[in-house]
Amino acid sequence: MDYLNVFQKNGVFVPFVVLGDPSYEESLKIVKTLIDAGADALELGFAFSDPMADGIAIQECHLRSLQAGANMQANFELLEQIHAYSPKTPIGLLLYANLIHRYGTDNFYKTCADCGVASVLVADLPLIESAPYVASAKKHNIAPVFIAAPHTSQRDLEQITNLTQAYVYVLAHSGVTGALDHLGTDAKGVIAAIKSFKEVPCMLGFGISKPDHAKEAREMGANGVICGSAVARLIKEHLSNPSQMHAKLKDFVQGFKA
Predict the structure, then answer these.
(1) What pLDDT score was predicted for residue 180?
(2) How far apart are the C-alpha atoms of 176 and 78, rounded to whole Å?
(3) Which DSSP letter does residue 96 get?
(4) CA-closest candidate to residue 117, choices 82, 146, 148, 85
(5) Residues 126 and 96 sit within 8 Å (Cβ to Cβ)
(6) Among 40, 196, 202, 209, which residue's Cβ finds the most Cβ atoms within 10 Å?
(7) Dihedrals φ, ψ of 165, to 5°?
(8) Marked catalytic residue, from 40, 43, 60, 216
């Protein structure tokens, strides 16, 4: 569950899925497929009614999961099963602050630790309000992860770099999640600035949809990519044929790994 070994690799691939989409039973099978296909680590979401950082593809994942009865207890039970299946695969969570607040911040991070979670990124948490979350995360030996965007100030980038204990999630573009044809180079300067403060791993996300993007990310100085919307699309396209879905997901991961 440690990121240290992961970032010794020459290019890290991390898929993102929302837990409980399309059901908890199928969700576990999907995550196992991603691990078996070679995912270096996982980024997992908890379904939320107002996922403001997410584009249409991932919003639909949240909706399907909520319609299937998503809840915090079931999320944590699924995390335990995933960790038991592959204890060496780091589990990162990417979720919204209200879910943590309602559950109780310290209770949330303690339960995460009990389930084998390695890192937590709170998508809508401003840096200026992050202290209680960071304190609780560190108390329970969980790495806080922060987002760095093309418009993030140098001062905030330095603070994010100093707070991170796993990696920095660098956005390929401003706005919401969604698969892109062209990544652009907005992130190049962000990654250079972060690494000028401290040598920490940078993962590029938002828009990653094809293996060429992994190569572009490496050229921009990123240590790897996080891919959500393209995975979400594959799940949606093959909801009625799970075996085909798993075959497509396997091919997708292996394409990036290659």
Answers:
(1) 57
(2) 27
(3) -
(4) 82
(5) no
(6) 202
(7) -125, 5
(8) 43
pLDDT score for 207? 84
pLDDT at 10: 84
Question: Residues 21, 40, 54, 216: which is the catalytic one?
Answer: 54
Measured over the CA atoms of residue 96, residue 99, residue 105 and residue 109, the dihedral's sign is negative
Q: Is 54 assigned a catalytic role?
A: yes
Beta bridge mates, 43: 16, 92
Instruction: Quote the CA–CA distance of 93 and 147 in Å, as a whole number.
Output: 13
What letter does residue 127 receive in the DSSP assignment?
G
Q: In a 10 Å sphere around its CB, with 0-12 CB exposed, 13-18 middle and 19+ buried, how is residue 84 labelled?
A: exposed
Peptide bond between residue 22 and the one before it cis (omega within 30 degrees of 0) = yes
- The residue type at 121: L
Report the distance separating Cα 176 and Cα 53, nearest Å: 5
The token pair that represents 161 in the structure block: 């770099």
Note the pTM of the prediction, 2 decimals. 0.95
Task: Assess contact for 200 and 4: CB atoms under 8 A.
Answer: no
User: What are the mean pLDDT values of the chain's consecutive 10-residue runs (258 residues total)?
Assistant: 86 97 98 98 96 90 96 98 98 98 98 98 96 98 96 96 95 70 79 96 93 93 96 96 98 94
d(CA 220, CA 188): 5
Which pLDDT score, from 0 to 100, does residue 55 have? 86
Cβ-based neighbour number of residue 15 at 10 Å: 29
pLDDT of residue 235: 97
Whole-number pLDDT of residue 173 = 79
Q: What is the phi/psi pair of residue 206, to 5°?
A: 75, 95
Rounded Cα–Cα distance for residues 38 and 22 (Å): 22
Residue 191 to residue 202: CA distance in whole angstroms: 7
- Residue 185: the pLDDT is 72
CA distance 240 to 123: 31
